[in-house]
């Protein structure tokens, strides 16, 4: 696990155009900002780190989803739009990216969007009650 993020996190340029594009505002926020939002970032080279984190935190349930037209068929466009609609959960949302690139947008302290680019090996833990949305980049991702 890296002490600092491999890539920068940035404020997103709202919801204009295709959500799968970077929408980088040019204003980078650090890992400390995400931590203040209650978001935990880890990077693991393989599932051993994920399994250790799960055991350490008592996580018992898992699901594996491949987000791609090939895996989801006719439901792909509907599902990707559902993921990109702003929503929140009553429980933590934990996502480990096994392959591909995607974006989590979260609401920041001043109600602005913060875009978190995730790629292979990244694990995010979003706290309960944080507004967020997810999309792939122009490729696909296997969270």
Question: What does this protein structure show overall?
Answer:
This protein has 143 residues and is an alpha+beta fold. The protein has one domain: Jelly Rolls (Sandwich), CATH 2.60.120. Helices cover 21% and strands 35% of the residues. It has four helices and eight strands; from the N terminus they run ββαβαααβββββ. The longest helix is centred in the middle third of the chain and has 11 residues.
Number of helices: 4
Low-pLDDT sequence parts? 1-9
Shape: globular
Helix content: 10-25%
The CATH architecture assignment turns out to be: Sandwich
β-strand amount? 25-35%
- What's the CATH H-level homologous superfamily? Jelly Rolls
- Gyration radius (Cα, Å) is 15 Å
Mind sketching the topology for me?
Blueprint: E1 9-12, E2 24-29, H1 31-36, E3 40-43, H2 47-57, H3 69-72, H4 76-84, E4 93-96, E5 99-107, E6 113-119, E7 122-126, E8 132-142
Antiparallel strand pairs: 1-2, 1-6, 3-7, 4-7, 5-6, 5-8
